[in-house]
Amino acid sequence: MEEEGLEDLINEILREVDYVEKEIPRELIELATELQSQLQNGDFKNRTGNLRQSMNVAVDGTDLKISMLVYGYFLSFGVDGRRRRGAFGLTEDVANAFGEPVGYRFGSRTKSNRVAGINARRFYPEDLENLIINILENTEL
């Protein structure tokens, strides 16, 4: 009896929200493949191969999930230090992942003279949100 009521409730909810399962746009999958290649071909030394192997771009609905070893973010965005001030501000998705404000520069808060700094290699995609929006706006879901 209870199972019947639960099933009726689920059916009613699905009718109300007019649920339609949507396919992942082919262009989004192609973008993920392109971005993974861009990351893995970045301008950085990779003696062990671990960083390049850790880089992954996966499609999750209408989002892209980018992952890599943490030090990859430091290489891509750079770190301000005593010898270098070339860090690049974090993009929104990376800033959120690190719990920092958009535009935060790694190393900008350090008072240590031991941090030499790292020049930004800028291989992480910087305009990711706009690329996804463009694909979704131009794709019939």
Structure in words:
- The chain has 141 residues and is mainly alpha-helical.
- It is built from 6 helices and 2 strands, in the order H-H-H-E-E-H-H-H.
- It has helices at 2-17, 26-40, 50-54, 70-77, 92-98, 128-137, and strands at 56-60, 63-67.
- The protein has a two-stranded antiparallel ribbon with strand order 1-2.
- The longest helix is centred in the first third of the chain and has 16 residues, at 2-17.
- The mean pLDDT is 83.
Write the layout of secondary structure elements.
Blueprint: H1 2-17, H2 26-40, H3 50-54, E1 56-60, E2 63-67, H4 70-77, H5 92-98, H6 128-137
Antiparallel strand pairs: 1-2
Brief write-up:
By secondary structure, the chain is mostly helical.
Strand content: 5-15%
The helix-and-strand class reads mainly alpha
The termini sit apart by 38 Å
Radius of gyration from CA coordinates: 21 Å
Q: Note the main sheet.
A: 2 strands, antiparallel
Order of strands in the sheet with most strands: 1-2
Low-confidence stretches: none
- Overall pLDDT score: 83
How many strand units? 2
Shape: elongated
Which percent range fits the helix content? Answer: 40-55%
Q: If helices are DSSP runs of H or I spanning 4 or more residues, what is the number of helices?
A: 6
Listing every helix as H and every strand as E from the N terminus to the C terminus, the arrangement reads HHHEEHHH
Features:
single chain; 141 residues; 43% helix; 7% strand
